[in-house]
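Below is a filled-in request sheet from our internal design queue. Each sheet records the structural input a requester submitted and the sequence that came back. We keep these sheets so that new team members can see what a complete request looks like end to end.

REQUESTER: design group, bay 2
PRIORITY: normal
MODE: inverse folding
CHAIN LENGTH: 379
BACKBONE (tokenized):
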């Protein structure tokens, strides 16, 4: 149950991908023969499916190698392209490292960055955001849903505020797309990062939505070469991965609502049982989190000890997959006001669509047993 770090490829996705590793091996940019045409048509079909999932136009979808690359292109590419307008970026203290490290790189390149604080539930203050915007602000970047505690941002309100001040709005939606409804137009989003492997597609494939009208957003390329993907991301396209992303988007569009209800029910049952049997405390507002996310803490018990105790049967984590090798407390949990000890006592559970009724019972029982055993050892 670590579906926030990655998800297994849906068998229906794999089935559609396989021919593009063999007989349909063409380069989507080689249009002088049928192999290239076939690959190009497959890519454009996938582009339409991804666009359809988020309310975009197909030509506004730029395929990348993943959400990290999309974030880099969005932030660095726009801060460079709009340098005559300003040099100021606004983001949030609880963003994924792909945004935070890009922001720090931009600071090293002479840009100014404001890192907004969050409240105990991981939400920014809109008045604080508005106060931070200056006439030199180019972009606001706030994630759609947090990858650790699952908090869902009010994208529509943030985007409306950004547009009122004539500032671009980017969101890292890697954890949200395919799991909750996203509409880039309704939500006033100008750029949005997505990842296939967070929604039962293949790793190594992502996309960046770049608004084409009202306003038309321009991005400086970070990788130079053949000019693929509207000259924003050069390089031969990963046709099998893109095909898989497209099918994953199609499936998510039709199954998302039902899965959200099912997994949300499992989540609620697990939380109730973990509170009753193991003394868990939820690290977010249960009314405003991803339906498949559960981040809880067990006061005085090291999360790593719990994780190691259950690792033979249950896959859970202490934080983002990008930071599991770090001994530092989660920057997200510290930002919402937890102490270092509380942060080190927190575990993240990410349910997925291949989980069934009995899985939640197995996980709760394993965690409860581990917590009780560790409490006995501690005396």
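RETURNED SEQUENCE:
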């Amino acid at each position: 149950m670590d579906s926030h770090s990655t998800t297994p490829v849906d068998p229906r996705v794999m089935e559609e991908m396989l021919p593009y590793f063999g007989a349909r091996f063409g380069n989507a940019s080689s249009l002088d023969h049928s192999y290239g045409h076939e690959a190009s048509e497959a890519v454009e079909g996938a582009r339409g499916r991804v666009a359809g999932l988020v309310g975009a136009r197909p030509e506004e979808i730029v395929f990348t190698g993943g959400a990290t690359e999309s974030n880099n292109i969005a932030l660095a590419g726009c801060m460079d392209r709009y340098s005559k307008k300003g040099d100021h970026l606004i983001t949030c203290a609880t963003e994924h490292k792909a945004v935070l490290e890009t922001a720090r790189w931009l600071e090293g390149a002479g840009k100014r960055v404001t890192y907004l604080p969050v409240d105990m539930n991981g939400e920014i203050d809109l008045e604080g955001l508005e106060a931070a915007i200056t006439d030199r602000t180019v972009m606001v970047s706030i994630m759609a849903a947090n990858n650790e505690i699952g908090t869902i941002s009010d994208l529509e309100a943030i985007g409306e505020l950004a547009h009122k001040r004539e500032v671009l709005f980017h969101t890292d939606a890697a954890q949200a797309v395919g799991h909750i409804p996203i509409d880039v137009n309704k939500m006033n989003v100008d750029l949005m990062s997505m990842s296939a492997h967070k929604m039962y597609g293949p790793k190594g494939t992502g996309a960046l939505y770049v608004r084409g009208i009202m306003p038309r957003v321009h991005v400086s390329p970070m990788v130079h070469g053949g000019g693929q993907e509207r000259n924003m991301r050069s390089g031969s396209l990963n046709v099998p991965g893109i095909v898989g992303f497209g099918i994953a988007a199609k499936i998510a569009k039709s199954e998302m609502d039902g899965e959200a209800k099912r997994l949300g029910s499992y989540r609620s049952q697990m939380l109730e049982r973990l509170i009753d049997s193991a003394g868990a405390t939820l690290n977010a507002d249960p009314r405003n989190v991803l339906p498949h996310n559960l981040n809880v803490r067990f006061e005085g018990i090291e999360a790593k000890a719990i994780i190691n105790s259950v690792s033979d049967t249950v896959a859970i984590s202490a934080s983002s997959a990008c930071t599991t090798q770090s001994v530092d407390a989660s920057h997200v949990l510290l930002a919402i006001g937890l102490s270092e000890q509380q942060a080190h006592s927190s575990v993240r559970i990410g349910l997925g669509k291949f989980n069934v009724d009995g899985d939640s019972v197995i996980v709760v029982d394993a965690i409860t047993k581990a917590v009780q055993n560790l409490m006995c050892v501690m005396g």
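SHEET NOTES:
- The beta strands are 61-64, 88-92, 112-116, 137-141, 168-172, 191-195, 206-210, 281-282, 293-297, 346-350.
- The longest strand covers residues 88-92.
FILED BY: M.R.
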